[in-house]
Amino acid sequence: MTIAMDDFERLDMRVGVIVDGEDLPRARKPSYRLLIDFGPLGTRQSVAALKTDYRLEYLINIQVVCVVNLSPRRIAGVKSEVLVLAATQDDGTLRLLVPDPAAEPGSKIA
């Protein structure tokens, strides 16, 4: 399926820094509740099904790429405000999208 460039441009993707997190045992998939700092946009929370691929200690203070303008969803009783982006390998392993080199929190993905 193809989409128009106008549709893609409506997505607001930004760089954020994971500043805190915790296990979310009520989630269907092994997940974390993450608090992500987007600099001038403030902090937002996300539920991310990363627990099988990343230890929480590794995630704190790393940069991630997120979609910040999707409607919030309630997952396992937690309001998830942003979507953390990751690549899914053939075996189902997730690999976070991370800017290289690092970028300022809140930087727009172009």
- Average pLDDT over all residues: 97
Find the count of extended strands (DSSP E, 2+ residues).
9
Strand order of the largest sheet: 3-2-1-4-7
Radius of gyration: 14 Å
Low-confidence stretches: none
Strand content: 35-45%
Compute the separation of the termini in Å. 22 Å
Proportion of residues in helical segments: under 10%
Order of helices and strands: HEEEHEEEEEE
Number of helices: 2
Please describe the biggest sheet, giving its number of strands, its sense, and whether it closes into a barrel: 5 strands, antiparallel
Note the overall shape.
Answer: globular
Structural class comes to: mainly beta
Structure description:
With 110 residues, this protein is mainly beta. Helix content is 8%, strand content 40%. It is built from two helices and nine strands, in the order H-E-E-E-H-E-E-E-E-E-E. The chain has a five-stranded antiparallel β-sheet with strand order 3-2-1-4-7, with no helix packed on it. Strand 5 (73-75) and strand 6 (78-80) form a beta hairpin. It starts with a helix and ends in a 14-residue tail after the last strand.
